[in-house]
């Protein structure tokens, strides 16, 4: 019961954070000139979009077993390109850089495109929090044995050992608060874990001295995609 309450508190805190920031930005509009007003409004739209996406992802978790998310051959590079395209403005607005590297020969993975998109999106948003103008966030796609591995590298504080061990097991069973990473989305990590588990994909993390790499491994699809 205590664990369940703590999970609810973590989720509530993460969903409350963008609302508090939106309130702060709204108040700052009063004293802003025209140029700053446009910047603030753009930032408010980005924050709102991310909050709505997170709520939608939580709703999807509740319906994973309803058969609404069909598995099919998915072109992984196309999904990554779409995520990068959506986040391009946000990274640029925050003076951040995201580098994409593709070395995979296997172009199709067996997944649900919508859920896969959310996993990559959450990893990239997390990386943006832990990069600056001097560092480069990295999105990599490569062949990994008989699978395709998607990795997003950040340069933030070390991932706590207990969280890393949970991820190493292949899943995060509940929303967690990540010590030393207050801007990191423990809720986003939970969402990525649940979606990966549904698609029979392996999610994990690699600890570095100067950050963390979050990855997810998908089975290669030999079937030709209709799209």
Describe the protein's architecture and organization.
- The chain has a single domain (2-225), classed as Heat Shock Protein 90.
- The protein is built from six helices and seven strands, in the order H-H-E-H-E-E-H-E-E-H-H-E-E.
- The protein has helices spanning 2-28, 34-62, 76-93, 113-129, 161-168, 186-198; strands spanning 72-75, 98-102, 108-111, 137-144, 147-154, 202-208, 211-219.
- Strand 4 and strand 5 (147-154) form a beta hairpin.
- The longest helix is centred in the N-terminal third of the chain and has 29 residues, at 34-62.
- The protein is globular.
The CATH superfamily appears as Histidine kinase-like ATPase, C-terminal domain
Helix content: 40-55%
The fraction of residues assigned to DSSP E strands is 15-25%
Reading the helices and strands in chain order gives HHEHEEHEEHHEE
* Total number of domains: 1
Q: Which structural class do the helices and strands define?
A: alpha+beta
Q: How many helices in DSSP terms? A: 6
What general form does the structure show? globular
Low-pLDDT segments: 1-10, 177-184
**Level-1 CATH class name:** Alpha Beta
Q: Tell me the total number of β-strands.
A: 7
Question: What's the end-to-end separation, in Å?
Answer: 46 Å
Mean pLDDT: 79
Identify the quaternary structure here: single chain
CATH topology: Heat Shock Protein 90
What is the level-2 CATH architecture name? 2-Layer Sandwich
């Amino acid at each position: 019961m205590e664990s369940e309450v703590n999970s609810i508190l973590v989720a509530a805190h993460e969903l409350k954070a963008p609302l508090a920031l939106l309130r702060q930005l709204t108040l700052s509009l009063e004293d802003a000139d025209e140029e700053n007003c446009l910047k603030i409004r753009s930032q408010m739209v980005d924050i709102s979009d991310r909050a709505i996406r997170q709520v939608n992802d939580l709703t999807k978790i509740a319906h994973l077993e309803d058969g609404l998310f069909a598995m099919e051959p998915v072109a992984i590079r196309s999904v990554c390109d779409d995520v990068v395209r959506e986040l391009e403005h946000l990274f640029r607005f925050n003076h951040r850089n995201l580098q994409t590297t593709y070395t995979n020969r296997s172009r199709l993975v067996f997944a649900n495109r919508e859920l896969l998109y959310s996993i990559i999106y959450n990893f990239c948003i997390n990386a943006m929090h832990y990069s600056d103008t001097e560092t480069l966030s990295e999105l990599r796609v490569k062949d990994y044995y008989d699978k395709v591995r998607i990795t997003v590298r950040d340069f933030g504080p070390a991932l706590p050992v207990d969280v890393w061990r949970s991820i190493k097991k292949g899943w995060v069973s509940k929303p967690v608060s990540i010590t030393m990473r207050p801007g990191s989305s423990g809720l986003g990590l939970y969402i990525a874990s649940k979606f990966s588990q549904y698609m029979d994909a392996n999610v994990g993390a690699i600890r570095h001295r100067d950050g963390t790499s979050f990855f997810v491994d998908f089975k290669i699809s030999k079937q030709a995609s209709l799209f």
